[in-house]
Structures are given as structure tokens and as C-alpha cells.
UniProtKB/TrEMBL annotation:
UniProt subunit comment: Component of the replication restart primosome.
Keywords, comma-separated and alphabetical: ATP-binding, DNA replication, DNA-binding, Helicase, Hydrolase, Isomerase, Metal-binding, Nucleotide-binding, Primosome, Zinc
GO molecular function: 3'-5' DNA helicase activity; ATP binding; ATP hydrolysis activity; DNA binding; zinc ion binding
GO CC annotation terms, alphabetical: primosome complex
Protein name: Replication restart protein PriA
Enzyme Commission designation: 5.6.2.4
Positions annotated to bind Zn(2+) 1: C479, C482, C519, C522
GO process annotations (BP): DNA recombination; DNA replication initiation; DNA replication, synthesis of primer; double-strand break repair
Cofactor note: Binds 2 zinc ions per subunit.
Functional note: Initiates the restart of stalled replication forks, which reloads the replicative helicase on sites other than the origin of replication. Recognizes and binds to abandoned replication forks and remodels them to uncover a helicase loading site. Promotes assembly of the primosome at these replication forks.
Residue segments, region Disordered: 1-20
Reactions listed under catalytic activity: ATP + H2O = ADP + phosphate + H(+); Couples ATP hydrolysis with the unwinding of duplex DNA by translocating in the 3'-5' direction
Cofactor(s) named in the record: Zn(2+)
């Protein structure tokens, strides 16, 4: 009641404010999904929220405001997206209640980008804004406690006379040589030891420690590993040519996209780092997007070696840390932002360049609303900033490839077909599993030729990487008498047996149960474990190569923070001879001592119900093959497959991207799939399968009806609806899932129709649906 009264007191009826018939209004969208209030709403801006003498409470675009909404005047938080003078209509507008942010959270240009996303991805603007602005951006500044070590002067004076074990001596000398105090992990890194010798030094009183509470940003700065500055490398001819292409794009009056297509190890990263050095030299900032999994100290280190002020954004950061980084970026203190997908929204004030490394990676597409693709958002952002967008990959997406290889003068292609330093591409050979199975009776996962190659590599003191894209021990559990298959009760997919934890696990919803000792169906004793997961492969490798140290990398073993880095460090130091795991080992690793890569089953993703199945297979095999032969010792690759003749596998074996594209593109073209057309996927889910399917059937009719006008314009504009059908993942967490695909060669027409359908479609209770524009995930 009190709030109401003060409200009336401050807020005289607006007909008194404005006799001329015009009023200052703010256009707002409700925050988040909007609580049922989708769309834009106008409110009057009361005088006290328009006072230039009080900039902290002024209504302006990019700030959040509190508004009364609906009949009961629910107070909702909203984003102000525009302010203007409007003729007062007959209908009386309500007034803003409060301005919540003392300054805009988002610039006008980022607001325009968000509007584009809302429109393109058919998502409410309020929800897009919550994605563009990290949750922590309005959070309070944080502090952090840091232990700092230094060497007392008295100790430093007799440093050379101390009797110490080797590691302690090294640590003490490193600390004494440092110009600033160091934290224990920092010192451990510098002296290449664990924290044990450092603790020993502290106990002996040879090292002083104090605890300080620092601003998070300061703490980050201090805790950043100390790195030696590296100079730019002398570029080879292909690299120099690629750099020149990017530098020319920096001069162009409009934004250009440069696709760097370079084989693995061709020195792509070095080229774009040099381009960024130029950009930073003009006082502008660069954003580098990398897949989350490659945000390793190794990658980040390469940027630290070359730039003074970098910010790293990743998904494990706390709100407070993220907020800090955000503010430093917005203040122009940061030269290079390195981060995963959402770093595309980093508020750099003078953006000079965006780079997307491993551009083909699926993780650049967000799988919740707004289902944006960072490549498309980056392109829009680069266009607005008139800055180049650099895409880099050994296996570009066909979307990027066709654009770069086509007539568009603003889409350029730079090829780097050779590895740096004259290193040859690794020799790749396929092993036909059909023939092998006949020869050796189908025992185990490792064929004889692969086994021999592993032996040879190990004897030669080389390291081995084995890829198997399936975690767990056995991929399914079946009764040998009646054929009963153990399934997840919520997802109707086969449960995977995990031997280390002795559970049958659903990889979709995490449902788990102990594996049955008798068949739940026919009650006969014993069940069989079929199929191959990484755990079983690990057991086989340990049994066959007992003297090798084996490390398994998959989401089961890499759960704890830092485990990924520790594993890669152990591999780099040579403590591990065989690294085996899922696709997380296929990416970006640069270990010169890897002389053999084995792909256990190259076909595993080849027949997925996804029009990109061949492309994914080609990418995976090519990328993992690229992890070998990166040193002087050369390297080879063995690819086990049931289909050595499949074009995707055959092209990967020859490192021949152009051949892969030439084989795949006509098929896409014939069917009107991307990059020759656009696809939208609709997914509906609910507990009642009939209702779910009926909703999509209705959607299909609505799409066809709205599509008629485009169908009439001929095949270049027509829409084609495929489905509805049960989604490949038919049941998930107790809900049935159906999907349909719509495709058209005319992306704009498709978009227009889907906009109308999304606005019209009403789902019954218990059924939810989403529209995925440019889908990547087809499950
Ligand atoms: N011009 C050069 N002279 C000498 N060494 C170079 C040069 N360019 C790059 N290198 C080195 O070669 C290795 C591979 O380079 P880089 O990582 O840039 O290649 P890449 O194409 O990005 O690799 P990938 O995509 O396969 O991970 C790195 O160790 C890098 O430091
Ligand atoms: Zn499940």
C-alpha cells in the first residue's frame, strides 16, 4: 500500500504532464521468456525518470525497468529497448515504476544484434537478452583469498649454501628469482613440480606466506600463469598469403569473411594470432571463439605468450568472475577475448576482428532457446562493426565452404594445404573389419594390423591415441535366451553397462540400475553384455599391452574440474603411452611424439538419421588423424571400418577435403539441404504421445497452408514438410518426442512461414514445442 501511495505522489496523471498531446514513451520487453507476456509494450516515462540531471535513474534503451503489467498490475522486470516521443493514443498508457540499472547493460549495437537474433531464431527478445547478458553482469563485485609466497631476505642471502632435495631447491630458486610474490600453484607450474616440495619449504620456514583478500580481477591477474613472451614466427609462403588476405579484409570498407582452410598442423593459429597483433596495434579488440573443450591451458597459453591483456570466458566461471571480465572488456582494458560460444557477446568497445577456430564444431550452436549459431551471430556482429570474420578449420562446414568458394566478393578463401616445416601428412590406411572378422573370428576391438602397429610404436617409444566414440563398457545388455534388451524406462533406449561403477546407465537421462542377474523377462539366468565402449577398450588395451601406461578420456573419467588438463599434461610429459577416449581426444591436441592414431570404428556415426552424418564422420576421422605426425618422427593412422569404400571415409583417408565436398554437395543440392537451402526443425514433447503427434500434424497443415503462396512461385521457393514422425530419440525423461523438418531453397520464405506458424500454433496442456532454426542436432 505504501508503495502505491508514493507512486501516486510522484506520478501525477499524465494528461497534466503533457498538454500538447505527445508523450515520452519507453518500449519494453519482459525479461526472460516473459511470463506469458511476449512482444513489446509501450509505457509512459514519468518526468522523474527522464531527468538529465539524474543520469542514474534515467530511462534509456539497454537498462532494466520495473513495470506494472496486466489487470492486476503485476510488477515485472523488463528491458527498455527504445525511448521516443509518441502521439498519445486514445488509450491511456501505464507508467514505468522504476529504472533498475544505473547505466545501460548493453550498447545500442548489441541491442540491434539481439533483435536480429530474436527475429531470426523465433525467440522472445527478453529471452535473447538474458543470453546476451550473462547472469553475473548485474552481480556484486567479488573478492577472493589468495596465498602469496616469497623468500625472506635472510634466506635469499644464503640460497646457494642450502642443502636441499632437488625439487625443493628448484622451487626455492624459482621463487627467489621471481619479481613478484607467487601463489603455490603458480610456483609449482614455474618450477615444474607438485605443491609437495613447496609445502616442505614452508614447513622449514624457508618460504614466507601471507594471505591477501583481493579483488577477483586483481587475483586473476596475479594468478595468471607467468609466461614467457614469444615473438611472432617467420611465416611460410601459404601462411603469409593467408595473413595478407586477412590484412586486406581489415582495410575493406565492409565486413568480409575469410575462411582459412588449412590441413591439421598447417599453422592456422599462428596466422590469425599475427592478424590479431595488427588489430591490437590499432587499439582495437579481437574476439576468438574456440570450442569449450579446447579452452585448455595450452590454447590459452598461446594467447598469453603474445598479448598483455587477455580475458578468458568459459562456462565454468562464477557469476562474479564473469561480471568482472565483462566490465574490463567493456572498459576497453582487454585486447583479446578468448572464449566459448557465448563470448561472441563480449562487449568490446572497438571490435576489430572476430575469429572462430574449429569453425565446423557443433558446440557453436546452442541447444536451448535462443538456439543460435555463433557463426551466424558473429557474422552479423562483424558486419555491424565492419570488421572481418575469420573462420578456421581443417574440415570446414559445407556452409562456410560453399560461401567462401562461391561468387560472393566478401567471402574469401585462403588455403593452406601443407603442414609447417615441411612435415608430411600422416600416412592413413584403412582396415576392413569385414575381412578382419573372417580372419580372426571377431575377437576383441583391436584388429591384428592395428595391434602390430601399436606394438611397433610402443617399442619405438612413441605414443598412441585410440579413438572410440562410445563411452561405457558395453553398449547394450541382452538376455541370450529370449533376446530381451535392457532399456531405460524413461527414454526407451538401450542402457549402457559401466563396469567400474557396476551400473546399467542411460546416457540420455542418467537413469541407472544394477545390471540384472536373471533376465527380467524370461527369468533365465545370466545376461550378456554386447557392443563396445571405451571402458571395455581400456580393459582390452591393458590386457594386450601390459607394460604400457594407459589413460582413458571420456566424460566419465573427466568429471572433476581440471582433470582434462591433468590428463593432457601427463600425456605431454610422456607418463602415458596410450591415450584412448571419445571424440574429446580428437580435437586440437598438438603432441609431437604421437606416432600412431587408431580409429576403432569409423562407421559409428555414418548411418545416423541426420543429413550431416557423412560430414561428421569425415570431420572426426580427419581431425583425429591430424593428431599424429606433428613431430620429426612422422606418424601413421589406422582406421578400422566396415565400409572402407564409403566416400566420406575414403576422402578422410586421403586428407582430401575437396573430394569429400565434391561428393557430398550434389546430394545436398539435389534435396535442397543446407548449404543450398534452409531447414527448420520442430520438436514437440509430452507424456501423451497422441497429443504430441497431433500437435505436429496440425503444425504441418498450418505450414503447408501458409506455404502455398511460395509453392506457387516454383521449386526455388516451395516448402517441403517432412514428418511428423517420432524423433530418433523417441522418448526422453518420460516424455514422447516427435519432430518434423521443413526445408526450402528460399530461406526467407521458410522463415516467414515459420514465423506465422509459431504465432498461430496453440499447444494443448501437457505438450510443449520448440522451433529450431538451422538445426544441428537431429536426435
Ligand atoms: N611459420 C612457422 N614456423 C615455425 N613453426 C610454426 C610456424 N607456424 C606455426 N608453427 C608451429 O607449428 C605448430 C602447428 O601450428 P598451429 O597450431 O598454428 O597449426 P594449426 O593449423 O592451427 O593446427 P591444428 O588445427 O591442426 O591444431 C605449432 O607448434 C606452431 O607453433
Ligand atoms: Zn533415460
Amino acid at each position: 500500500m505504501a508503495a502505491q501511495q508514493s507512486l501516486f505522489a510522484d506520478d501525477p496523471p499524465d494528461w497534466e504532464q503533457d498538454a500538447a498531446g505527445e508523450a515520452l514513451t519507453a518500449t519494453v520487453v519482459m525479461a526472460g521468456a516473459g511470463g506469458g507476456a511476449a512482444g513489446e509494450f509501450d509505457y509512459l516515462v514519468p518526468d522523474q525518470l527522464a531527468d538529465p540531471r539524474n543520469p542514474e535513474t534515467r530511462a534509456e534503451p539497454g537498462r532494466r525497468v520495473l513495470v506494472p503489467f496486466g489487470r492486476g498490475d503485476r510488477r515485472l522486470s523488463a528491458y527498455c529497448v527504445a525511448v521516443g516521443v509518441k502521439p498519445r493514443g486514445a488509450r491511456r498508457l501505464k507508467s514505468l515504476l522504476e529504472v533498475l540499472d544505473p547505466a545501460p547493460l548493453i550498447s545500442e549495437s548489441m541491442l540491434r544484434l539481439a533483435r536480429w537474433m530474436a527475429e531470426y531464431y523465433l525467440t522472445p527478445l527478453g529471452q535473447v537478452l538474458e543470453t546476451v547478458l550473462p547472469a553475473g553482469v548485474r552481480g556484486a563485485a567479488g573478492t577472493r583469498e589468495v596465498t602469496l609466497l616469497s623468500v625472506p631476505t635472510a634466506v635469499a642471502a644464503r640460497l646457494t649454501r642450502l642443502e636441499l632435495p632437488e625439487k625443493q631447491r628448484r622451487a626455492l630458486e624459482s621463487l627467489a628469482a621471481s619479481t613478484k610474490p607467487l601463489s603455490p600453484p603458480q610456483l609449482a607450474k614455474l618450477a615444474d613440480c607438485t605443491t609437495a616440495p613447496i609445502n616442505a619449504l614452508r614447513k622449514k620456514g624457508l618460504v614466507e606466506s601471507r594471505v591477501e583478500r583481493l579483488d577477483t580481477a586483481q587475483a586473476d591477474e596475479l594468478l595468471a600463469p607467468t609466461v614467457e613472451r614469444q615473438q611472432p614466427k617467420q611465416l611460410n609462403k601459404d601462411q603469409a598469403h593467408t595473413l595478407a588476405t586477412i590484412l586486406a579484409a581489415l582495410e575493406a570498407p565492409q565486413s568480409q569473411t575469410v575462411l582459412i582452410h588449412g590441413v591439421t598442423g598447417s599453422g592456422k593459429t599462428e596466422v590469425y594470432i599475427q592478424a590479431i597483433e595488427r588489430v591490437v596495434g590499432f587499439g582495437r579488440q579481437a574476439i576468438v571463439l574456440v570450442p569449450e573443450i579446447s579452452l585448455t591451458p595450452q590454447t590459452v597459453g598461446r594467447f598469453r605468450e603474445r598479448f598483455d591483456h587477455i580475458a578468458v570466458l568459459h562456462s565454468h566461471q562464477s557469476d562474479v568472475e564473469r561480471h568482472r571480465q565483462w566490465r574490463r572488456i567493456a572498459a576497453g582494458e582487454i585486447q583479446v577475448v578468448v572464449g566459448a560460444r557465448s563470448a561472441v557477446f563480449a562487449p568490446t568497445p572497438h571490435l576489430g576482428l572476430i575469429v572462430i577456430d574449429e569453425e565446423h564444431e557443433t558446440s557453436f550452436k546452442q541447444d536451448t532457446a535462443p538456439r543460435y549459431h555463433a557463426r551466424e551471430v558473429a557474422r552479423r556482429r562483424a558486419e555491424a562493426a565492419r570488421a572481418p570474420l575469420v573462420l578456421s578449420s581443417a574440415t570446414p562446414s559445407l556452409e562456410a565452404w560453399v560461401r567462401a568458394d562461391g561468387p560472393d566478393p566478401d567471402a574469401l578463401l585462403a588455403s593452406m594445404p601443407r603442414r609447417v616445416g615441411g612435415l608430411p601428412m600422416p600416412d592413413v590406411r584403412t582396415i576392413d573389419l569385414v575381412q578382419e572378422a573372417h580372419g580372426r573370428g571377431g575377437r576383441g576391438a583391436i584388429s591384428r594390423p592395428l595391434s602390430q602397429a601399436i606394438h611397433a610404436s610402443l617399442e619405438d617409444r612413441g605414443q598412441v591415441i585410440l579413438l572410440l566414440n562410445r563411452r561405457g563398457f558395453s553398449t547394450h545388455v541382452r538376455c541370450p535366451s529370449c533376446g530381451y534388451l535392457l532399456e531405460c524406462p524413461h527414454c526407451e533406449t538401450a542402457l549402457t553397462f559401466h563396469r567400474d561403477t557396476n551400473v546399467a546407465l542411460c546416457h540420455w537421462c542418467d537413469y541407472r540400475e544394477p545390471p540384472p542377474r536373471i533376465c527380467p523377462d524370461c527369468k533365465s539366468a545370466g545376461v550378456n553384455y554386447h557392443g563396445l565402449g571405451t571402458q571395455k577398450l581400456e580393459a582390452e588395451v591393458r590386457a594386450r599391452f601390459p607394460s604400457a601406461n594407459v589413460l582413458r578420456m571420456d566424460t566419465d573419467t573427466m568429471r572433476s574440474p581440471g582433470s582434462h588438463e591433468r590428463a593432457l599434461d601427463a600425456f605431454r610429459r610422456g607418463e602415458v603411452q596410450v591415450l584412448l577416449g571419445t571424440q574429446m581426444i580428437a580435437k586440437g591436441l598438438d603432441f609431437p611424439n604421437v606416432t600412431l592414431v587408431g580409429v576403432i570404428n569409423a562407421d559409428s556415426a555414418l548411418h545416423w538419421p541426420d543429413f550431416r552424418a557423412s560430414e561428421r564422420t569425415f570431420q572426426l576421422v580427419t581431425q583425429v588423424a591430424g593428431r599424429t605426425g606433428r613431430g620429426e618422427r612422422g606418424g601413421r593412422v589406422m582406421v578400422q571400418t566396415f565400409e572402407p569404400g564409403h566416400p566420406a571415409i575414403a576422402a578422410a583417408v586421403r586428407h582430401d577435403y575437396a573430394a569429400f565436398a565434391a561428393g557430398e554437395l550434389p546430394e545436398r543440392e539435389a534435396l535442397g539441404y543446407p548449404p543450398y537451402g534452409s531447414v527448420v526443425r520442430m520438436i514437440a514433447r509430452g507424456e501423451n504421445a497422441k497429443l504430441v503427434e497431433a500437435l505436429l500434424a496440425k503444425a504441418a497443415d498450418t505450414i503447408r497452408r501458409h506455404g502455398e503462396e511460395f509453392d506457387a512461385m516454383g521449386p526455388a521457393h516451395a516448402l517441403r514438410v517432412i514428418g511428423p514422425a517420432p524423433a530418433p530419440l523417441e522418448k526422453l525423461r518420460g516424455e514422447y518426442r516427435f519432430h518434423l523438418l521443413v526445408r526450402s531453397r528460399d530461406g526467407a520464405a521458410l522463415h516467414r512461414v515459420m514465423q506465422r506458424v509459431a504465432a498461430e500454433l496453440e499447444a494443448p496442456d501437457g505438450v510443449r514445442w520448440v522451433v529450431d532454426v538451422d538445426p544441428v542436432d537431429m536426435m
